[in-house]
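Example 9 (inverse folding). The structure is encoded as follows.
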């Protein structure tokens, strides 16, 4: 059961989350998905899970390419929005990735755009990886697209102000222990708001330990959305491809 103290339960379900990030680069995201379609050679018979799918934009795009996709997300608001686009080969469900998926198993699981690392401890991270693996067919493949903690921390801008839809967001970034923290403060309609994002700066070796414990084999490690090789000190991303 979701705990009240978990920041992502409130923030991802808030309309302000989608306002702040409305300008995310859809062109780059679709380009990445196109690279993945080519890389994995998806077929119409494959079952694909978009894990932590948000409002479903990537699942919807994959489905438009003729693929069978299930989108899962913790936020009921996100799933309510995404469900408007459902069809026979596109379904959305509220689901916590720490829990095993109770339905049919998947050929591919995609966890895109840093949708991991939100949990407080290693045990929950391991629980999530093992739950994901349990929902895959033997030989199925998992992609986890995560930030590269080395470059994020080294290039961090401590303070930023953004005005979007008439709302001025004051954003402060810091490193607190093992977490990269973003504090978001703003006022709207006479009320002050504060939200916080906390993403654990999980290093590559920590991920490898999680994968080993879940009997997942690393196939590839990419460093950006064009699927170039990962370079620890330079790459923008850590994009893991694993096989069960």
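The amino acid assigned to each position is listed next.
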């Amino acid at each position: 059961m979701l705990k009240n103290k978990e920041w992502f339960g409130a923030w991802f379900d808030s309309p302000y989350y989608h306002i702040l990030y409305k300008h995310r680069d859809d062109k780059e995201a679709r380009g990445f998905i196109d690279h993945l379609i080519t890389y994995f050679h998806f077929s119409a018979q494959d079952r694909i899970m978009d894990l932590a799918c948000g409002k479903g934009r990537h699942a919807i795009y994959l489905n438009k390419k003729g693929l069978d996709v299930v989108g899962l997300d913790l936020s009921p608001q996100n799933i309510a929005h995404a469900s408007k686009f459902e069809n026979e080969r596109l379904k959305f469900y509220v689901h916590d990735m720490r829990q095993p998926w109770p339905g049919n198993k998947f050929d591919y699981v995609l966890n895109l755009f840093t949708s991991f690392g939100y949990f407080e401890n290693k045990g929950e991270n391991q629980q999530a990886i093992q739950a994901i693996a349990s929902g895959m067919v033997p030989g199925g493949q998992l992609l986890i697209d995560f930030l590269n903690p080395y470059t994020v921390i080294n290039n961090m801008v401590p303070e930023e102000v953004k005005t979007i839809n008439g709302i001025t967001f004051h954003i402060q970034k810091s490193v607190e222990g093992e977490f990269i923290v973003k504090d978001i403060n703003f006022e709207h309609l006479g009320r002050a708001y504060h939200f916080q994002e906390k993403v654990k700066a999980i290093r590559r070796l920590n991920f490898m330990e999680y994968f080993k414990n879940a009997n997942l084999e690393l196939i590839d490690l990419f460093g950006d959305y064009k699927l170039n090789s990962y370079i620890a000190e330079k790459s923008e991303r850590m994009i893991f491809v694993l096989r069960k």
